[in-house]
Fold:
Amino acid sequence: DSGVTQTPKHLITATGQRVTLRCSPRSGDLSVYWYQQSLDQGLQFLIQYYNGEERAKGNILERFSAQQFPDLHSELNLSSLELGDSALYFCASSVDSSYFYEQYFGPGTRLTVT
Amino acid sequence: AQSVTQPDIHITVSEGASLELRCNYSYGATPYLFWYVQSPGQGLQLLLKYFSGDTLVQGIKGFEAEFKRSQSSFNLRKPSVHWSDAAEYFCAGGGYQKVTFGTGTKLQVIP
Structure:
């Protein structure tokens, strides 16, 4: 158990809909990362937050947004969903914002768009 | 551009045999390098990391990796593979602004 929790574990929704994925980092970790893992794209970095502020952006679509709240939990919002958004979404946390530090991954949320 | 390449998509080894998973990186300076393992249905777990110093790094579960600057490689090794090592392995490089993951190598272990 990494100490990172993600809810829900599974999500099935229809195209055009909007969903919110939630992540609680390990106790004491200030940085949260979101990743998308799909068969054709592999593991893609989406976005990083550090202590409530956006720190780095990766291959995140404009239809996706995220935020980190004062209690350090984070939410990833996916809107106007398309079939291609079906994937496993991971949250990871680390103690600091530098990529020197190990990232602890949650178990993921499997999103299926029908 | 910063990149990490894992040339082998799938590798099969016999239980008890030695293992080497390849990883090549392309970074301007010495990157932070990591190996993660992902068991089926699980998130990724760090096996080991390198950032400076001794080029041979020991990790958990009996894994080690060697940083070779001349070859831009950071290959993962294990002297004797166990059936429980069957998983997907990701090499990752951390540099300015983000960490980049390789495409992963799926390891199958046969009896």
Residues 68 and 74 of chain A are 4 Å apart (CA to CA).
